[in-house]
Design goal:
Helix content is 62%, strand content 3%. Among the domains are: 289-340, no CATH class; 343-429, Arc Repressor Mutant, subunit A, CATH 1.10.10. It has 430 residues and is mainly alpha-helical. The strands form two sheets. A three-stranded antiparallel sheet has the order 1-3-2. It has a two-stranded antiparallel sheet with strand order 4-5. It has helices spanning 11-23, 27-34, 36-42, 48-52, 55-62, 68-84, 88-106, 114-134, 152-168, 186-199, 206-214, 230-246, 250-263, 269-285, 293-298, 303-313, 316-325, 327-332, 336-340, 343-357, 366-375, 382-394, 426-429; strands at 363-365, 400-403, 408-411, 414-415, 418-419. It contains 23 helices and five strands.
């Protein structure tokens, strides 16, 4: 990308630069010039008066060779004026209109303008987030009257879905790239949508946009995951790993998070930390190797040390204290429920201790297990202790059955006639 002006003296000069790259079909540079990060500085000296004076007519005249882009350029300049004043709701309205205007012309274009599309989509997501924060809206909350108020991120995600079809349904052969297929915009656009969906907790929308990318088809019309830009692959695998976590498909989640960690740019410390925030508790739950203290310290994840200590000690009181101490960290990073699932490992460890203390007697009284839970700092009763046992059996973490009016746990010590540990390795379960 060649050197661009750091600042424009007028909107006319800015529009002339946009038109120049438009006429050369340079969608990547065009997208950069339209981006919020660029215009915040490059248009900083332009007044609102200049923005409002005959801007639309000027853009229409200058974009005569591609008239559909005139509205895009006009709205971006207006957005820049609003973002300068940090009026994010107004900026979002202008960005939406810019995206809508681009969507109208996109269907008649080839993949030359994918860089422009992603720039507009990314900024729409970023500005929507700022607008929602400015309006003090929590994504997905209901208004006081009980009716649902659609957030800016809701609107941004919906608009991207409409453009997703224009990319994914393009009948042009994908290879070579020069054929112009818009399918090459599918993955980067999906990544922008996934970022919206997870913020607003609309995870039910993830599968419909994942499915086309997970399917294989005619090689001429399908793009395999390895053909995409690596940064897009890492982003996609990170969010789809979270989807697999929601579905409790832990082996696929681990596989994708491991891919992210192996391929994330080493200078992107914030991204590496984000990957580890999900990967560390997942590997603990799967009974995999415990991360070193040095690794946790290097990535500012010392909070996990307390949970590792609880798992090693088998003390529920230690675990509960760690949850209380780090509740804000767990909630902010969306792993509160994932961490709570580690409790099953502690329950299992306590039950195994009871079994060993009873000289490996294949019959364990639930009353003994209940006492162990209480000694570990968990105030419970027989009914809950029995429920915990049933849950361990259901999760295949324990080979056993409950008999004698639900008072006794009978461990299964043989499988196919040979001795088998009634507490199978966690890694083998998954």
């Amino acid at each position: 990308m060649e050197d661009l002006p750091e600042k424009f003296s007028s909107t006319a000069e800015y529009i002339d630069t946009l038109v120049s790259y438009l006429e050369h079909w340079d969608g990547d540079t065009l997208g950069h010039i339209l981006s919020l990060s660029y215009t915040d500085k490059a248009l900083d000296g332009i007044s609102k008066v200049e923005v409002s004076q005959a801007l639309e007519a000027s853009c229409a005249t200058k974009c005569s060779s591609a008239p559909g882009f005139a509205a895009v350029f006009t709205c971006v300049v207006q957005r820049s004026a609003m973002s300068k004043d940090r009026d994010w709701q107004a900026a979002f309205e202008h960005q939406k209109r810019a995206f809508d205007a681009f969507s109208k012309v996109f269907k008649s274009q080839t993949n030359w303008c994918l860089g422009t599309m992603i720039s507009l989509a990314r900024d729409m997501r970023i500005i929507a987030r700022k607008a929602d924060k400015a309006n003090e809206l929590d994504a997905g909350d209901d208004d006081d009257d009980g009716s649902h108020r659609q957030t800016a991120l809701d609107q941004a995600g919906s608009k991207m879905i409409s453009l997703f079809a224009a990319c994914n349904n393009d009948p042009t052969e994908c290879f070579p790239y020069e054929n112009g297929s818009r399918k090459w915009g599918t993955l980067p656009l999906v990544n922008q949508m996934l970022k919206c969906f997870f913020i607003i907790d609309k995870v039910h929308l993830v599968a419909p946009v994942m499915n086309p990318l997970e399917m294989t088809g005619d090689a001429a019309y399908a793009i395999s995951m390895g053909d995409w830009n690596m940064s897009d692959q890492v982003t996609y695998n990170f969010f789809t790993a979270r989807e697999f976590l929601n579905k409790e498909d832990y082996s696929k989640a681990e596989e994708r998070l491991n891919f992210c960690l192996a391929n994330c740019h080493q200078a992107a410390e914030a991204n590496i930390q984000r990957i580890l925030i999900f990967l560390v508790p997942l590997r603990l739950m799967l009974g995999k190797a415990v991360p070193s203290s040095e690794l946790l310290l290097r990535h500012s994840l010392e909070a996990f040390s307390d949970f590792i200590a609880a798992l090693r000690s088998g003390e529920l009181a230690v675990f509960n204290a760690a949850v209380q101490l780090h509740e804000e960290f767990l909630s902010q990073n969306g792993i509160f429920l994932l961490i709570l699932k580690l409790k099953s490992l502690l329950y299992r460890k306590l039950l195994r201790r009871v079994w060993l203390l009873r000289d490996r007697n294949p019959q364990i009284q639930i009353e003994d297990f209940c006492s162990a839970l209480r000694l570990s700092g968990y105030d419970t009763d027989l009914d809950e202790a029995e429920c915990i046992v049933h849950n361990l059996i259901e999760a295949k973490m324990l080979r056993a059955k409950v008999i004698d009016h639900r008072t006794t746990v009978v461990l299964q010590l043989k499988v196919a006639g040979a001795f088998a540990d009634p507490f199978p390795p966690i890694a083998a379960i998954s």
